[in-house]
Design brief:
By secondary structure, the chain is mostly helical. It has 5 helices and no strands.
Length: 139
């Protein structure tokens, strides 16, 4: 629908009509008559248009980018809220089950984290298979 007017174009035309009435311009004024009334050439008139009227195509691109960024922001905000909620649940679970205390007690045990080498090797004279693959009497 290339013939329809955008809201920006409607606003510009209404503003032009108001200026036309205020300056007593002919109803059927054209670019040449407007430029003559202002005392400038058509070329200067078009330069003024470029200088004083915002680029609606560039503005539309910026508005689209803004819409895209707002959508992405909302998506990221929801994801953050979800992750934050999960983390709060984990913190609460750690408190309820005293995980910090349990981990602290594991650090203070003597020889914590060290394994006896005899548990994982076969006894002298026995093969590893006959000694339950090195696990002693756990088999």
């Amino acid at each position: 629908m290339a013939d329809s007017l955008t809201p920006e174009e409607v606003a510009i035309l209404i503003q032009a009509r108001q200026i036309q009435r205020e300056k007593n311009l002919n109803r059927d004024f054209d670019v040449t008559s407007v430029c003559q009334r202002a005392g400038v050439s058509r070329k200067t008139g078009y330069q003024w248009v470029k200088k004083h009227i915002p680029d609606t195509a560039g503005q539309k691109e910026l508005e689209q980018e803004l819409t895209k960024l707002r959508t992405e922001y909302e998506k990221l905000k929801k994801e953050y809220d979800r992750v934050d909620f999960e983390n709060e649940g984990r913190k609460l679970a750690w408190e309820i089950h005293h995980v910090d205390e349990w981990l602290a007690s594991k650090k203070t045990l003597p020889n914590a984290g060290q394994r006896k080498s005899s548990n994982f090797s076969a006894s002298p004279g026995k093969s590893a298979k006959s000694d339950c693959l090195g696990f002693g009497n756990l088999c």
